[in-house]
Amino acid sequence: MNKEDAIKKARDYAESLHRGFAPSHDFSHVERVYRLAERIATEEGADLFIVRMAALLHDIGRAEEKRANCREEDIHDELSVKLSKPFLDDLGLDDMTKDAIIHAIATHRHRRGGSPQTLEARCLFDADKLDSLGAVGIARSYLWLGEHGRSVYYPDEEWIHIDPKNNSPEIDSTQREWHIKLRHLKDKMYTDTGKAIAVERHERMARIIEEIEKEVKGII
Predict the structure, then answer these.
(1) Is residue 115 classed exposed, middle or buried when 0-12, 13-18 and 19+ CB atoms within 10 A define those classes?
(2) Distance between the two ends of the chain, CA-based, in angstroms?
(3) Contact (Cβ atoms closer than 8 angstroms) between residue 126 and residue 188
(4) What is the dihedral of CA 106, 108, 114, 119, to 10 degrees?
(5) Is CATH 1.20.58.1910 what the domain over 132-220 is classified as, yes or no?
(6) Burial (0-12, 13-18, 19+ Cβ within 10 Å), 129
(7) 27 contact partners, CB below 8 Å, separation of at least 6
(8) What are the pLDDT digits (tens) for 14-29?
(9) Average pLDDT of 187-209?
(10) Could you tell me which residue, 75 or 9, shows the higher pLDDT?
(11) Of 150, 154, 133, nearest to 142 (Cα)?
(12) What is the number of H-type helices and E-type strands within the chain?
C-alpha cells in the first residue's frame, strides 16, 4: 500500500472512532494536531509519513476508554497503542516504520509512555501540547468546562489550596489549569519550531485570561 492510501485509511479509521465525542476532544482536535505536527515536522526535517500517521491515530484510544467505561485515570495513550498495532499490521508497513509510529503515539503524553526519543515523536508531542495553548486552548478549556457544568471564572482563593494532582471536574477551571499546568507548557516543548510557536501561544493565552478576569470584575 502506498503512503497516500495508508494516510487516508488512518484518517477514515480515526474519524470513525471519534464520532460522538464531546467537542473538547472530537476529531477537530486531531485535525489541528495533524496540521501542527506536519508544520513542525517539515521545519525540523522529520519523516512526514510517520508524523502524519501518528497524529491521526494518537487519540483513538479515547473511543475504547469510553466504551469500556475505564475507571482508571486517563489511559487513552495506552489504548491508542493497543488499537493502532493491528491496524498498522493490516496496512503491511515494515516493522521499523510501525515501531516509529507506535513510539510516537505511546509517548505523546509524557506520562506512563515515557519521553519521546525520536524526532517524529517529539513533533507529535509538541503539536498535541500546542493545541492546549493560545486562543484555541482557551476555547477547548471552556468546551471541557461546559461539558462538566463549570463556569467562566473562579478566583484563586477557591482552588489555590487544592492538591494540584486532583483532576476532579467539579473543582477545575481555566484559571486553575493555567496556574498548575498550561503556563508551564512552553517550557516542555522539544523542537525549536514547537518552542517558537509555544511562546506566541503562551503570551496570547495569558492575555486572554487576564482580559477575562478584568471583564468578570467589571474593570473593563
Answers:
(1) exposed
(2) 58
(3) no
(4) 100
(5) yes
(6) buried
(7) 14, 15, 18, 19, 21
(8) 999 988 888 888 999 9
(9) 98
(10) 9
(11) 150
(12) 10, 0
Q: Looking at per-residue confidence, does 168 or 56 come out higher?
A: 56
CATH topology of domain 1-115: Cyclin A; domain 1 (1.10.472)
pLDDT digits (tens, 9 = 90+) for 40-96: 999 999 999 999 999 999 999 887 666 555 555 577 778 888 999 999 999 999 999
- Least Cα distance to 182 among 211, 141, 212 occurs for 141
Q: Are 48 and 3 contacting, i.e. CB atoms less than 8 angstroms apart?
A: no
Q: Which segments of the chain belong to CATH 1.10.472.50?
A: 1-115
Distance in angstroms (rounded) separating the CA atoms of residues 124 and 87: 19
Q: Is 45 helix (H, G, I), strand (E, B) or coil?
A: coil
